[in-house]
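As promised in the previous annual report, we have extended the structural survey to additional targets. Below is the entry for NADH-quinone oxidoreductase subunit L.
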Amino acid sequence: MTTTTLAVLVPLLPFLGAAAGLFLGRKAPGFVRPLAILPTLAAAVLAVVVAVRQGGGETIDAATRFTPTGSVPIDLALHLDGFAVLVAALVGVVASCVQIYSTAYLRDDPRYPSYAALVSLFTAAMLLVVYSGDLMVLLVGWEIMGICSYFLVGHYWETPEARAASLKAFLVTKLGDVPFLIGLFALATDAGTFRITGILDAVEKGGIDHPTLIALLLLAGVAGKSAQFPLHTWLPDAMAGPTPVSALIHAATMVAAGIYFVARLLPLFASSDAALIVLAVMAAVTMVGSGLAALAQDDIKRVLAYSTIGQLGYMAGALAVADRGAAVFHLISHGAFKALLFLAAGVVIHAAGTNSLAAMSRMSGLPKRIPDAYWTMTVALLALVAIPPFAGFFSKEAVLVAAEHSALGGLTAPAAAGWTVLVAGLLAALLTAAYATRLWLLAFRGRGADAPDHGREPRAMTSVLWLLAVPSLGLGAAFGYFDEWFDGRGLAPTLLTAVLGTGVALIGALLTYGAWRTLRHRDGLAVPMPEAAVVAHPDAGPSAVEAEAVATHEAAYGSVAGAPDPADPGRLLLGPLHRHAVTGFHLDAVYHLLFVRPVQAGAELVRFLDREVVDTYVRGSGTGANWLGVLVRRAQTGNVQTYLSALLAGTVVLAIAAVVLSNVNAGS
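The corresponding structure token record, generated without further manual editing, is:
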């Protein structure tokens, strides 16, 4: 079987599994779990085979005409280079882990069949984006992911948090998709094709007439899909969905799609210095802002959500300095350890009966209850902080090295972009270490009553954690092997950036530990924990515990994000900035003021005009018809003599009028 045929099967198998799962979900529930796992697992195996066959060598292109359009044709095209095959392997592996994990996590959920089918469809859509060689086909997968995220984030639709989060995710990403679509059509008009190879040829020959405008329009869609400032606000709220969905969205599908898209078309963006500087500023603000916000969150999943936003900022920063090898290397590395972090967080939430770090800090014995999650989450947090030799160290150093080279004039990107990314990246490394250390200390070093005993976690959940711990620990060591897959550009760290990056990370960790120790010896932990903060149901499934924990967090603490915890080291480190950081620096309030309120005011105006103006005319016409009917009805007496008298009177009036008019005409 040819490599092209295998590549076609990779997105096709999860799609067929999704269709079969939806069709058989009610009729044959025994087939739901096999249909969820086997097609996705087979797609992962085939994706690995395609990656091995491609081997980082010559790009494989194949296409067939889908339909003539009369202008720019649309092709069913494959474009398999080193970036595509490695990202597809990541998507397949993470999606398989999520499907296996979900069989236990949602074992008692009545909506599991539709959930599993949507996860398979989500996976197929991302694989379509990764392998597609035509932007219109890529757009199909891009939009399918948006629809799937709406349903999956809103899986716990009984809770108002999930309903609001799913709608927000859909609307914010669509806000970016509008200019994105305009940019795609403008790009195809200039290049004369939707094929990626044709567009890159046009860029190389200078055939794109408006590169800056097109690049900025496309960046709007990328900001929405990959949760970059200012369209990142949907991602923390999306934590109201099931934890396996969070792992899939954050690690390997939706948020990675925007970064991957820019990497695919990087020569287009690199042809405009203005676009690269805008991307660099966007990445810098995202990295630093998300780090500050993560340090103030109480929900363990919201901490990880802001962490994802920051790590995506690193990837965007690498693209801003025109190094897509470093960006995709960090995308793959981050996909492994972030999937592990979220899936381990699901185990922690189930064991603790809460998603609140403040509540966990008032429990003891949690590491003993869940040793698998404790050790694997520790590995993933070390990778996130970029401590050598964990995977995150090598991939994050690749980004910092690229920024350093750009700042010193070694790359084609503007030096201003390089300095912006380098400084923001080092500051973000300090913040990353701070919030990761805070999460670990509050979750696993608490004091107080024993954590609820839910028994041993299912093997389907714990085995996946250890599987993902392997690349989280060892993937970075393969950086030398990946050079040929990533344009042949070296990914090795330099001494300067390694010392700076690791040094600031250690400073951030030590500052957080010192603040935690200081507060621990005060009376902060003496503050009682709200009764509603912990949902202790030893017999309940993980998804049921999580749904109730999400629903009760705001009731317990008065906020969906924070908690009034005097023993929180983040509160001490941030000082007066804490109250702003916990709300994401009030961006939602700003958007409500700038967009929501004007739209609501416009809707009220339209309602007023509809009811008081349009309806007035409609009611007036009806009233006039009624009055006319009354008059006509009074004339219809049924008396023949009356009708003859009226006819005679009318004839006399007409005769008199005729005589008068004739005399007038004769006189004139």
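The beta strands are 60-67, 74-80, 363-364, 449-450. The chain has a mean pLDDT of 88. These points will be discussed at the next consortium meeting with the crystallography subgroup.
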